[in-house]
Write a structure and sequence with these properties.
Blueprint (H helix, E strand, L loop, with lengths): L2 H16 L18 H22 L6 H32 L10 E2 L4 H23 L5 H33 L3 E2 L16 H9 L1
Helix pairs in contact: 1-2, 1-4, 2-3, 2-4, 3-4, 4-5
Length: 204
């Protein structure tokens, strides 16, 4: 089975597992062995799925402002965990390909394998929820038709993105593309880099 096919199955399982409770406070029950790539992929999509629903909740126009602020902090924390996990997955790929010697004319891809997988994980969520809308009986026929059209586009994106990821991995394995990773260096959660945060610390 291709890597992207395995990843898609894991993402789909994570999404289905989350919707058993459909609760952003639900505890993850990762079914895969610790340290395995499968465990990392499941954890990655679980974070994405929880954050997807937190983003829905915070857009409720009637949400209590205090609750919204608390939720915004959770979303920021989730974003940091998401970034950290993507970089951890890239570290897994770096270790996998550590003995590959790139050719002299090897290219550098603008996106690492893990960040491409990040997009695939989000795409799995889009397809899941667009499919729900395309079949929602309480919606109008016009709504379902539009969502079906959008779903077909998303499914085409899944095919194209999966092919692109497989090609990237093939090129890395064969030395045609360099496996090069840059840390994202998020600044907004860092007390030493975010002016608002380090000014607050200074004034305490």
């Amino acid at each position: 089975m291709k890597f992207t096919e395995t990843a898609w199955e894991i993402f789909s399982q994570s999404i289905e597992d989350y919707h058993l409770t459909d609760n952003v406070e639900a505890t993850i029950k990762n079914p895969f062995p610790d340290g395995s790539l499968e465990q990392l992929l499941y954890a990655k999509n679980w974070i994405d799925t929880v954050q997807w629903h937190m983003e829905d909740i915070i857009r409720d126009e009637d949400i209590d402002p205090t609750e919204a602020l608390t939720l915004k902090r959770k979303i920021d924390s989730s974003n940091q965990k998401r970034t950290d996990l993507v970089e951890f997955i890239d570290s897994w790929f770096l270790d996998k390909y550590k003995n590959i010697s790139p050719r002299e004319d090897a290219k550098i891809n603008s996106e690492t394998p893990a960040w491409a997988v990040d997009r695939l994980s989000i795409l799995a969520l889009k397809i899941y929820h667009m499919n729900l809308e395309a079949q929602r009986e309480s919606a109008s026929e016009d709504h379902r038709k539009k969502c079906t059209d959008k779903l077909n586009v998303l499914l085409e994106q899944q095919k194209d993105l999966s092919e692109a990821i497989e090609q990237l991995l093939f090129d890395i394995e064969n030395g045609k593309t360099k496996m090069k990773v840059y840390k994202q260096m998020k600044m907004y959660n860092d007390q030493s880099l975010n002016p608002i945060l380090y000014q607050n610390v200074k004034n305490e």
